[in-house]
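User: Fold this one for me? It's Serine/threonine-protein phosphatase 2A activator.
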Amino acid sequence: MESHDHQHSPKSPQTPSPPTATAATTTDATCRKCGSPTTFTPPQPWSEVSPPPTYRPIRSPAINLPPNNHSQQAIILAPVPKSQKVPLVSPPYHFLLPTKRILSPDDIRRFLDSDAAKNFLGFIVALSESIRSHKISDPCHLSPTIDSIVSITETLIRWIDEIPPLQQASRYGNLSYRTWHDRLAETSESLMLSFLPDDLQSATVEIVPYFADSFGNSSRIDYGTGHETNFAAWLYCLARLGLIKEEDYQAVVARVFVKYLELMRKLQLVYCLEPAGSHGVWGLDDYHFLPFIFGSSQLIDHKYIKPKSIHNQDILDNFSNEYLYLECIAFVKKVKKGLFAEHSPLLDDITVVHTWNKVNSGLLKMYKVEVLEKVPIMQHFLFGSLIKWE
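Assistant: Here's what I get for Serine/threonine-protein phosphatase 2A activator.
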């Protein structure tokens, strides 16, 4: 028999799809060069727990784990949160410096069983319902408080232009963000006093910490859903003080939250904020959750735009300025490279849901399980007299 002076490079079967087998098996094959019989050992298949790295995120996520089956089951079984009226506080006031209280899963359960948690989540649901079937540009009630908050947010946006990013080698975490955040910390109290009535001036001790922690962490130079939740908690505190009323809720989403999202997008892009505790490709988004809830509510009963419509670039181009959900999708596609189904599989999965009503209720349940029930996020949440630790 003729001897071989080359290494075999057998005809190999195509790379196996994510498998059920757990061990490689040997199969017959033939040498590509000489046609003689040889053997082929397929590569070790990818386990179901760790799928193949088909996509490398443009941002380096802090956590990149596949969905947890327990979390998925919890979301499916959880009841849809209901809206609740915000209980107002009345004098005499006893405002407190809010502190962190959550350290363990037991603390999470204690919080979620409390009236404070039910009322806070009920406030989120009420905001979602207030924007149902409304475009961003639709007319809404604008109170002096809403105007003041929008003006404050525009000031924070203007500071970014006044504090340009430093030229530095590292890709993430521009140090100029700390300068921006220092200015925020120095002026937060005066910003609050600009719209608080005289009898509520003492509330700054409690509401300033929520506000100051709504725009990211200055030492880590990151931002995530925990900071976004603090912003929602700050708005909830203003509602408890009676400064934000139910007739303001549509404007809270369409004016205040839209402006907040504009600020956070600019901070993320200019100062390259890291995602705080991101789930990478397995999460909804690297930074935000609430705009998906509010945005899906906006699209309920829309005559033409369906969940699958996010794959239509014309729809994104023409309607993302009116619908938060579409704006979020457009932003994800802007900052992440590669196939949408690979870098955002969860958002892609949502497109098979038939109605926005189901998308909205599913996201509300998911927010409770994936944000409010997670110790790494909620360990930074604050408790005082307006959001009590019970």
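One thing worth pointing out: The radius of gyration is 25 Å.
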